[in-house]
Amino acid sequence: MDDMGGDQLYRIHEPASGGHAVELRYTPTVADMAEGLRARGRSKAGRRQRLPFFLVGLVGPGYAAILVAQGGESAGSAAALTVVGLFGWAFALFGHRFMARSTRGLLAAAGECRTVVDGEGVTVDCAQGSTHLRWSALSGYVETPATFMVLSGDKRVLGGALLPKRGLADPGEQDVLRALLDGKLERI
């Protein structure tokens, strides 16, 4: 605890001294989340997580073709393997949309968010609570036409923050935010 009335890690803080801070105000949407998750899929961890779905998409129909070519009486098994393979491909290619839709209730409950990116990290404050991510807990970021997706440093990239560009007060702040992220994180 500090003398100023709160734990430094969880307190919404003022910009770090001498540094720039960028504030975003936005209501998160499923489209924002889908775009951020698609961008996250371009990271090394994201590609590694999608690999099993591509393999299922190849092996399932491939094995089904072998069963049919051998003239086996297991046409039902071949059809099932083909369907499983198609689901593998669908999730590998469109999984970000499925996952984004599954967050619809969570995003609606978040309401309007206020995010501050400064010299200490990224602080997100919304109706459900506040989260502060220090730069040391983050590994990189991905920029898309509509968002910045800040990725956590863990091996599976399970955490992070989604920063929709429409939340910036001035479009010129994109350059300030990009410079701040470039100074602290690796661009993916």
Keyword list:
single chain, alpha+beta, four-stranded mixed beta sheet
SSE topology sketch:
Elements: E1 22-26, H1 30-40, H2 44-69, H3 75-102, H4 104-110, E2 113-118, E3 121-126, E4 129-134, E5 138-143, E6 147-152, E7 160-164, H5 173-184, E8 186-187
Parallel strand pairs: 5-8
Antiparallel strand pairs: 1-2, 2-3, 3-4, 5-6, 6-7
Helix pairs in contact: 1-3, 2-3
Structure, described:
With 188 residues, this protein is an alpha+beta fold. 45% of the residues lie in helices and 22% in strands. It is built from 5 helices and 8 strands. A 4-stranded antiparallel β-sheet has the order 1-2-3-4, covered by helices on one side. Strands 7-6-5-8 form a 4-stranded mixed β-sheet, sandwiched between helices. Helix 1 packs across helix 3 (75-102) and helix 2 packs antiparallel against helix 3 (75-102). The two termini are 36 Å apart. The model is unreliable at 1-18 (pLDDT under 50).
Largest sheet: 4 strands, antiparallel
Uncertain segments are 1-18
Number of beta-strand segments: 8
Roughly what is the average pLDDT, rounded to an integer? 77
